[in-house]
Amino acid sequence: MALVKLEDFYPNYRDEIFGGDDIKGLDVYAGTSEEKIGTIHDALVDESGRFRYLVLDTGFWVFGKKVLLPIGSCRIDYDARRVYATNLLNKEQAERLPAYDELQPIDYDHEEQVRDVYRAPATTAGATAGATAGATAVQPTANTNDRDTYTYDREPALYNMNERDHATLRLYEERLIANKTRQKTGEVTVGKRVETETARASVPIERERVVIERTTPTSSTPVAPGDANFQAGEVAHMEVYEEIPDIHKEAFVREEVGVRKEIERETVDAEETLRREELDVQAEGRTIVNKGPEDSGNRSI
Prior knowledge:
Elements: E1 4-5, H1 6-9, H2 13-16, E2 27-30, E3 36-45, E4 51-57, E5 66-70, E6 74-77, E7 82-85, H3 91-96, H4 108-119, H5 125-132, H6 156-159
Parallel strand pairs: 2-7
Antiparallel strand pairs: 1-3, 2-3, 3-4, 4-5, 6-7
């Protein structure tokens, strides 16, 4: 049964449990007497968050020793800012308690030493004086369980809380809160790259050329007088053309690409084990207990 410091389990314990106040620093008195025996140094809770011990700093009462005070063996008066250790009545008891070292884990043997002291409160003169002042020491039932089977609910006189003595210690329950957050899971970048290739094109072209044909007449017929015009100079003119190929590059739209996002929806199911603290009210004799309109029976813390 691991024990942890109050602030380690409830970081906001001042607001969540004590309504902005703090149990640390409250003065501690023996029984219901006016003998101050120290102050509350800290509180310890179990793995479920339930209060199990207050850490009592005895100061000069027992040479600065810190000891454990079971939550059921005290009464808290928030108006007077006092804690009454109902089963710690004199120094002899405090000296028998093992010292608490916050740097060392608390094991079963340490707790058993603590429980043994509170199971049988001393009946010395100090206890008698406390009783005279109005202290009524609760006698816890001796535990006969070993370290493997022991549970805190076996000794309610040491570990149970009630509305009279622990009125502002709140009961908690866990609730499953379903929510969602938006987080970036990746990104897509669309870019372009240039690829090259060699293209070939063929264009047929035409080219003109001048052909000069010379022939010799087969007969020697004389030319009529006046037809022979012997002169020098140009006798014919002809223009010559050819086609020149025009091969060049032009850009065209080959494809259009659209980029968009689509939302896919799904329902995610989760299952958790929730804890809840319930109040255990025990009444003996002809005691009338008004539990309120919402309570219909005893419920366990």
